[in-house]
Automatic annotation (TrEMBL):
The keyword Transmembrane helix does not apply. Keywords: Oxidoreductase. One of its GO terms (molecular function) is oxidoreductase activity. It comes from Sinanaerobacter chloroacetimidivorans. This is FAD-dependent oxidoreductase. Residues 1-297 form the FAD/NAD(P)-binding domain.
């Protein structure tokens, strides 16, 4: 949406396609107030940031197609889009564009354990979609695996939605997310078991019990420490990885970086990938946060307007420098430093593979 707005603002004709029934991505599931700096919407709920983006895009005449999935990219900048939700009514259209932005976000990592395919076991993001987007409680007694910010925030939101969060399990010696989120959970009396993992899910037709246990320094289960918890839902918050298949299948060069969540397409300072005319922004280029995704989108939108001749290179360079300053600000401090280095490596890799 940010890329669309910046390009449309400068006179580009923009079409946004989204697989969901609503544009705006994860923001519409984020009912909590954002963390971060006040210039980046801290204290504002994600859902409200999303609503403002949609309104701005609409006012600028951005065309939005929903329930429309990009299923393939072809040479000559053609995108195959599958439109519709009903199998009978579904159709595929080929869209040609002069420039393309890939902003597909990220997908959830899974953890495999005995019984992990039983109904009732899902990604934490799926549980969050159920409660915050579809108003459906996934279950009444939930075990959360993982205590990064996603695990912590979704646990709290499940509690707000009326579920009993039985416990959180974390293999590391301490929680991964912000203490402020963890405190809300522990204050409600929910135990967070650090140095623990899940061994097994039991049940017939649906999960009924979870077996957890302690782990040693090498994250191996310690025999004799098993605990059985009565649960009907297990949510897994074990990190995210860039949803970069479209870009990678098309031939955009990518690089593996664990800090960014895995394989992600490399890009230049304009967010342009190694395939000319194809830009990559947001979690697709490495899992970060909504604000960095928005700024990267803005960068691509301005760069596209520049390359289409809608804005002079001089004006564009001033705006882009400003955005880069904000991006660097977001990636500074103890939580951002590793990401800052990883993103610098990504820019370097682009230069290496293109010999730029
Ligand atoms: C629980 C939780 C809490 C968070 N809290 C914060 C916070 O407080 N502050 C913060 O800054 N960040 C937060 N984040 C992170 C933030 O939500 C993401 O980093 C951000 O949404 C990434 O934006 P994006 O546009 O790259 O991807 P997304 O928001 O995931 O958007 C991707 C969009 O692409 C669509 N899509 C995917 N594939 C296709 C396809 N093939 N065809 C068509 N459409 C497709 C999807 O439907 C989706 O709408 C949180 C994340 C989670 C899960």
């Amino acid at each position: 949406m940010a890329a669309a707005i910046e390009a449309a603002k400068r006179g580009a004709e923009v079409l946004v396609i989204d697989a969901n029934e609503k544009a705006g991505g994860q923001l519409f599931k984020q009912i909590h107030k954002f963390f971060g700096s006040s210039t980046h919407g801290a204290g504002i709920r994600g859902i409200d940031i999303g609503k403002d983006l949609l309104k701005e895009a609409e006012d600028l005449g951005v065309e939005v197609w929903l329930n429309s999935v990009a299923i393939g990219l072809f040479r000559e900048m053609t995108v195959a889009v599958e439109i519709g939700t009903d199998d009978v009514e579904k159709k595929v259209e080929m869209i040609e564009a002069e420039k393309l932005v890939i902003a597909c976000g990220a997908s959830e990592n899974v953890v495999r354990f005995k019984g992990w395919t039983l109904p009732g076991i899902m990604g934490a993001g799926a549980a969050q979609t159920m409660i915050n987007a579809n108003r459906v409680l996934p279950g009444k007694k939930v075990l959360m695996i993982g205590t990064g910010n996603v695990g912590l925030i979704v646990s709290y939101q499940l509690m707000q939605a009326g579920a009993d969060v039985v416990a959180l399990v974390e293999a590391a010696p301490k929680i991964g997310g912000y203490v402020v989120h963890a405190s809300k959970i522990t204050r409600a009396g929910v135990p967070i078991y650090t140095r623990h993992t899940i061994l097994e899910a039991r049940g017939e037709g649906r999960v009924k019990e979870a077996v957890i246990c302690e782990v040693d320094e090498k994250w191996q289960p310690v025999p004799g420490t098993e605990k059985v918890l009565e649960v009907d839902t297990i949510a897994i918050a074990a990190g995210l990885k860039p949803l970069a298949e479209l870009a990678i299948m098309h031939g955009c060069k990518s690089k593996f970086d664990p800090i960014l969540g895995g394989w992600a397409p490399v890009h230049d300072e304009n967010m342009e990938s190694t395939c000319p005319g194809i830009y990559v922004v947001g979690d697709v280029t490495g899992v970060e946060e909504a604000n960095t995704a928005l700024e990267e989108g803005r960068l691509a939108g301005v760069a596209i307007a520049e390359s289409l001749g809608k804005i002079t290179p001089e004006d564009a360079s001033v705006i882009k420098a400003d955005i880069w300053q904000r991006l660097d600000g977001l990636r500074s401090g103890p939580h951002g430093e590793a990401r800052m280095k990883a993103k610098a490596r990504q820019l370097e890799s682009f230069k290496e593979v293109t010999n730029a």
